[in-house]
Amino acid sequence: xxxxxKGRGGPSPQEAxxxxxxxxxxxxxxxxxxxxRIERELAVARQHGTRNRRAALQALKRKKRYEKxxxxxxxxxxxxxxxxxxxxxxxxxxxxxxxMGYAAQAMKxxxxxxxxxxxxxxxxxxxxxxxxxxxxxxxxxxxxxFGDEFDEDELMAELEELEQEELNKGMRDVRLxxxxxxxxxxxxxxxxxxxxxxxxxxxxxxxxxxEDEDEMKKLAAWAS
Length: 224
Prior knowledge:
Layout: H1 2-7, H2 13-48, H3 53-111, H4 116-141, H5 152-172, H6 189-199, H7 201-223
């Protein structure tokens, strides 16, 4: 594995991370061993106490050396942990950048067959067709006006004629009261004319027209 890594120009991030984890595991086991030895030497020092001061001091010295090694291992583990986290982050960033590069290449490949001028022309065609479709919809939705163009004055004149015909028809249908069988007392000429106008409006109108004609004849005779 190492030879293959060297042939490739250095270990891969995965290989380096695996080595760092192995080192962390080894140092953790060394920590457990040193903690056990420290407890054992402390127990020896307590056992000898004042009865064998020399043996007790030797045990305490060994305990101090183990504690120093344990402290060094703690520092080494902190450094390895920091390096491992940095390598993991670098590996993650590398993978992210690699994937982003793949995405950029894919986008470039997709856009190779796209022409901005063609896109502009296509969008313009779409807009024009949408306008045409809107005009067609408006034309269909508008109310048909076939045959509605007539002269309003002619229509009003025809309507007035129809109304006059209905009025005349109604006047013809009016029934006048029957003439009494007994003779009426004589009345002055003016009263008879007034009576005739009240009873028969149509006859009175003709009578007024006859009177006007007589007056015009008399006026013409006087002028000549």
